[in-house]
User: Which sequence fits this backbone?
């Protein structure tokens, strides 16, 4: 601190540590002594004077009138200040006035003219009148001096005693708190309570609340009851003040009182949850305040209780945030499931997923990973209670590249297949319907260039096989047929069942047989005979297909036999028809199959399957006779053809013999030297024949075209 002496009786003083920003002054004027405080602050551009960046203002200004000085016409020789008093110096005395009240609190005699003190009594301080009072800036003390050079150092003790009471009475409680720490041991909270009572008297509830929050000794429950009594009928104001009080009160509780901190923290959570539930315009600010509260006090919260409180008010975003800060969102869901609050558990999961996707603090991949983790962790727990909703959540996030479909299959699909025998059948049915729906949706939307779903190890073929198994175990033949149709029509590279259910155009790849074999096994387990027939046919096992079809649908067996046109298959159909028909109509049934085979079977093929001919019915007899007449006619035609062939053969033999004879007589083949002769009698000069370019390989007469037979003596 330091002082500065100016003309005209103006003095300044700065309190230690306060600097130039809070400077006290005292000034002698014609009206009396003026004192106060100059507050200095950095100025805005429009308020600052040229060349200055500060603005000063006077506050707490007071006047000590000349009448209060009680010195007649005497003129003050000087004025100065201490921390709490204004000092006015006259030639013979020093007066000390309280800065708070302006009242004279001390009078010190300095000089008594023409006075001779009695023996053994104290003399006056000075022998001559006082001339002035100054401040020593180096040691921050006051000196009184005379014109003859006498000086005395002024020391004041206990000048703050009782000052805080005066300041408090004047309503200057900040000053009272400041003064209470010097010179007198007084409770700071006594002043705060006095200030709070003044605020309460003026119905300034907010200020009173803030003052109570600074008091350690005031019981929390007492203050809470007081606040509720002030705000009776205004629940919104009551909850706001209680929240502000408790949040600030937490800062005053020592670290060695963790239980007290936890209790107050939980009260704050309850208050925040209530206020956020009812708020509308103020909700964003409340959410921000609650986030800051969690960040500051997470270590004192009992997470389980806090989650229960937030869930009871439907604050699922805050549950997600709280559990995220604590790194344990599963705790909330576990707690709800164990307590039977399944609806709330689902809502918590949904809220957590939505909040995670909206969280601006996370990068996109981080959000997707956290969502995938939540789904993976909660699906095994919740699928047995709400399989449809869990499937819908997986469906909503099916594009997430971090989702592992294995988790869904190993939990909800396994549950649908009856792994939890104690669960009601209705829930298992729901799980079956939900899982088949979701897997089909995933398969239908699967990119042909990307066969693996998410980050799991399951291919599209695996999912289809799982679906087949589910339908087989549930006896849903229509569902299985739809899967086989999807296998047939799918363009996905790993789906190779291109011959199902009615085609015969397999790829020939080894995958065909593998997939068809698995499909056959699943359909066999489900007793889907019609589908098994189709698969047998696609595998080329027509005998097995017809045999199985005959056991439940003979027309289907005929259809497959007609498609293959194999005689043995039609014989199976005919034998089955004869065996299952009444004895009187067994022949009719067998003959009917032969007639429907479109020529593959004849009546005689099925005669071994019918009784004796004499015992046959008229229809069978007529059919048999017609068949025999047809055979007889065919045999006659064959005999006629054989006779014609014999005549032609004999003529050929005679022709050969004749030509052999001609050759022996020199009329055929090559003639005499230099000639070429043919059996027809035409003879040509050999040279001419060769010039014509025919060569010796000429086999026919150039005139009539009769072929020459060179080796007539060799067998034909």
Assistant:
């Amino acid at each position: 601190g330091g002082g500065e002496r100016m003309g005209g009786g103006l003095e300044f003083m700065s309190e230690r540590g306060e600097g130039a920003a809070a400077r006290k002054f005292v000034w002698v004027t014609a009206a009396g002594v003026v004192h106060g405080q100059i507050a200095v602050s950095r100025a805005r551009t429009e308020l600052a004077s040229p060349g200055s960046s500060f603005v000063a203002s006077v506050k707490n200004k007071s006047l000590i009138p000349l009448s209060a000085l009680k010195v007649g016409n005497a003129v003050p020789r000087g004025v100065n200040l201490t921390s709490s008093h204004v000092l006015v110096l006259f030639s013979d005395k020093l007066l000390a006035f309280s800065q708070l009240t302006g009242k004279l609190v001390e009078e010190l005699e300095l000089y008594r003219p023409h006075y001779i003190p009695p023996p053994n009594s104290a003399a006056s301080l000075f022998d001559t009148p006082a001339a002035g009072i100054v401040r020593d800036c180096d040691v921050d003390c006051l000196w009184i001096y005379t014109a003859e050079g006498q000086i005395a150092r002024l020391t004041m003790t206990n000048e703050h005693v009782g000052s805080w009471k005066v300041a408090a009475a004047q309503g200057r409680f900040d000053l009272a708190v400041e003064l209470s720490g010097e010179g007198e041991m007084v409770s700071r909270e006594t002043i705060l309570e006095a200030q709070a009572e003044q605020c309460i008297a003026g119905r300034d509830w907010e200020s009173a609340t803030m003052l109570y929050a600074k008091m350690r000794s005031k019981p929390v429950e007492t203050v809470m009851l007081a606040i509720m009594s002030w705000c009776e009928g205004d629940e919104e104001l009551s909850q706001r003040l209680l929240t502000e009080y408790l949040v600030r009160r937490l800062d005053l509780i020592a670290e060695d009182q963790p239980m007290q901190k936890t209790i107050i923290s939980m009260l704050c959570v309850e208050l925040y949850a209530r206020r956020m539930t009812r708020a509308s315009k103020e909700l964003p600010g409340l959410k921000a305040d609650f986030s800051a509260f969690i960040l500051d006090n997470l270590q004192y919260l009992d997470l389980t209780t806090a989650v229960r409180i937030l869930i009871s008010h439907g604050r699922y975003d805050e549950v997600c945030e709280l559990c995220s800060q604590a790194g344990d969102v599963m705790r909330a869901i576990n707690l709800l499931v164990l307590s039977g609050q399944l609806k709330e558990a689902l809502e918590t999961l949904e809220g957590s997923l939505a909040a995670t996707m909206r969280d601006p603090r996370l990068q996109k991949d981080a959000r997707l990973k956290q969502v995938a983790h939540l789904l993976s962790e909660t699906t095994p727990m919740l699928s047995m209670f709400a399989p449809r909703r869990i499937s819908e959540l997986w469906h909503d996030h099916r594009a997430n590249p971090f989702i592992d479909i294995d988790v869904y299959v190993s939990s909800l699909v396994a549950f649908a297949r009856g792994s939890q025998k104690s669960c009601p059948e209705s829930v298992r049915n729901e799980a079956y319907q939900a899982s088949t729906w979701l897997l089909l949706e995933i398969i239908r939307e699967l990119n042909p260039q990307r066969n693996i779903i998410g980050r799991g190890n399951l291919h599209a073929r695996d999912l289809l096989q799982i679906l087949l198994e589910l339908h087989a175990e549930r006896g849903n033949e229509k569902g299985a047929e739809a899967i086989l149709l999807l296998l047939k029509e799918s363009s996905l590279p790993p789906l190779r069942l291109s011959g199902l259910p009615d085609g015969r155009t397999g790829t020939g790849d080894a995958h065909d047989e593998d997939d068809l074999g698995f499909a056959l096994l699943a359909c066999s387990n489900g007793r889907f005979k019609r589908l098994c027939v189709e698969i047998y046919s696609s595998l080329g096992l027509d005998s097995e297909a017809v045999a199985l079809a005959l056991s439940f649908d003979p027309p289907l067996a005929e259809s497959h036999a007609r498609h293959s046109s194999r005689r043995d298959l039609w014989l199976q159909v005919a034998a089955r028809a004869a065996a299952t028909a009444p004895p009187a109509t067994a022949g009719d049934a067998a003959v009917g199959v032969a007639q429907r085979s479109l020529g593959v079977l004849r009546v005689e093929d099925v005669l071994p399957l019918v009784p004796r001919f004499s015992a046959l019915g008229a229809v069978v007899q007529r059919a048999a006779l017609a068949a025999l007449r047809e055979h007889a006619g065919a045999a006659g035609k064959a005999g006629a053809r054989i006779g014609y062939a014999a005549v032609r053969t004999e003529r050929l033999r005679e022709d050969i013999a004749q030509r052999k004879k001609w050759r022996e007589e020199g009329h055929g083949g090559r003639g005499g030297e230099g000639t070429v002769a043919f059996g027809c009698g035409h003879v040509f000069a050999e040279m001419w024949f060769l010039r014509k370019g025919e060569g010796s390989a000429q086999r026919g007469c150039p005139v009539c075209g009769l072929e020459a037979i060179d080796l007539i003596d060799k067998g034909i």
